[in-house]
Backbone:
């Protein structure tokens, strides 16, 4: 079964082709236009999607070495995401599905991130056993998800304010670093002392996360230190980055570890843009190795937004005949 996946929920335009979940192509066009603004500008994102979508889809089909007529269904991200961006991918998918006279499958972007672990690079790729726990950490979400099957997943805990990626990006911004700051903090942290600075950690019940207190305490530390030394950030950026990253990892692992312990589940996975962070990857791997738990750490290409994961999520829905109507609108927030 050949599925064409299309992803356009935020600032990456992506198209991928899979055959029975084996990856044939995965093309991603990232939008550089937002860098000057320190964050994603929704209107510019939709315009860039409009420019990118035709060449990206053509390239994915070309790299897959298939003919358009061999595609069995088109899976597209219906939400959550930026409304304008979602509209471009949704409208394009509908047009192509009509032209090729094939079914459309609507995919929840977050299901895509979870099911990214079922993208096979070849027939031998190992995939998680059910049930497994997934730590989904990105610029917009921080969730602990219990995954019973490709069709049955439930949120055990999630952030009550900022997402982990926002904590990285917003703290990086006050340090004067470009957007997105997460990867730069990751780089800087490798030369810094993670114990140098202490930032606030939340004390909230259950499996939920909070990152806004950390953000405030980071800001106050900079404000106080800058009064004494105007070059404080420049002189201490590696230690600041390392201490910030360690605090975020401690917060993430505290609740994820609690969920692993309480459920007794022996297979875990991570996903979303922040799962590209080298400290997060090492912490999850080490936690699992010590306890005989199997950890699935995705390749970096599959951590950020990509259409391969949308195609895989679409594959499973299509297997059960779950297609969507040509009139289906995108959803910015509502989870499908
Ligand atoms: O999943 P994603 O591409 O899309 C959103 O939901 O936004 O995640 C993007 C987020 C950004 O906050 C970015 O700073 C963060 O992932 N990120 C990282 C790293 N790579 C990307 N954060 C920390 N370390 C990284 N290496």
Residues:
């Amino acid at each position: 079964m050949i599925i064409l996946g299309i992803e356009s929920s935020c600032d990456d335009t992506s198209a991928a082709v899979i055959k029975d979940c084996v990856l044939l192509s995965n093309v991603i066009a990232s939008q550089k236009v937002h860098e000057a603004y320190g964050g994603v500008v929704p209107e510019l994102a939709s315009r860039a999607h409009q420019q990118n979508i035709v060449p990206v889809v053509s390239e994915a089909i070309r790299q897959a070495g298939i003919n358009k007529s061999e595609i069995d269904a088109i899976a597209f991200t219906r939400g959550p995401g930026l409304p304008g961006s979602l509209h471009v991918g949704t409208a394009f998918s509908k047009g192509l599905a009509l032209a090729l006279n094939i079914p459309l499958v609507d995919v929840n972007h977050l299901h895509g991130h979870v099911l990214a672990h079922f993208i096979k690079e070849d027939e031998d790729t190992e995939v998680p056993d059910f049930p497994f726990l997934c730590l989904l950490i990105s610029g917009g979400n921080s969730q602990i998800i219990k995954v019973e099957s490709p069709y049955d997943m439930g949120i055990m805990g999630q952030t009550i304010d900022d997402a982990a990626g926002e904590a990285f990006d917003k703290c990086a911004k006050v340090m004067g670093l470009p957007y997105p700051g997460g990867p730069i903090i990751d780089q800087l942290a490798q030369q810094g002392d993670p114990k140098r600075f202490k930032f606030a950690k939340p004390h909230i019940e259950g499996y939920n996360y909070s990152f806004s207190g950390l953000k405030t305490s980071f800001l106050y530390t900079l404000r106080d230190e800058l009064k004494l030394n105007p070059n404080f950030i420049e002189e201490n950026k590696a230690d600041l980055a390392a201490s910030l990253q360690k605090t975020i990892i401690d917060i993430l692992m505290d609740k994820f570890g609690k969920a692993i312990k309480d459920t007794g589940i022996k297979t875990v996975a991570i996903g979303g843009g922040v799962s590209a962070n080298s400290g997060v990857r090492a912490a999850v791997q080490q936690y699992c190795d010590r306890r005989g738990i199997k950890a699935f750490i995705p390749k970096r290409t599959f951590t950020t937004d990509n259409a391969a994961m949308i195609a895989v999520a679409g594959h499973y829905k299509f297997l059960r005949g779950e297609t969507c109507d040509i009139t289906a609108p995108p959803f910015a927030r509502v989870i499908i």
About this structure: The mean pLDDT is 96.
